[in-house]
């Protein structure tokens, strides 16, 4: 793999991948707002983290085609979670902003997911929770790592 330090076997990597995918899926299913899709919530979160973006930038960031992003933005706008404004430097473009209602929704979904995950962590032993706590810096770095596509 990397040739540095301790390496993980492919089996361990597969176990990590499966655990992360299942945990993420369960969290989205048990602690989400059914009014929006996972992609719509992802777009809302991206706008909250990155500020206003153009539809094209959002489409590339979310790995969807521009027509799909147009539909996603329209749906979010219908719910009152985003608004469009003309781009200040390019009259052909629009910027997508999160509304106060969008911020409230994102905070509520985050709160629900945190509570759900806390309940799941409560099922673990103290030792298991300690190991998860110790792994957090590495998991954070892994989540932020950029790989060429």
SSE pattern: HHHHEEHH
Low-confidence stretches: none
Strand content: 5-15%
Distance between the termini: 18 Å
How many strand segments? 2
The proportion of residues forming helix, as a percent range, comes to 55-70%
Describe the protein in words:
This protein has 149 residues and is mainly α. The chain has 6 helices and 2 strands, in the order ααααββαα. The protein has helices at 10-30, 38-50, 55-62, 66-78, 100-121, 126-144; strands spanning 82-86, 94-98. The longest helix is centred in the C-terminal third of the chain and has 22 residues, at 100-121. It starts with 9 loop residues before the first helix and ends in a 5-residue tail after the last helix.
Protein topology:
Blueprint lengths: L9 H21 L7 H13 L4 H8 L3 H13 L3 E5 L7 E5 L1 H22 L4 H19 L5
Antiparallel strand pairs: 1-2
Helix pairs in contact: 2-4, 3-4
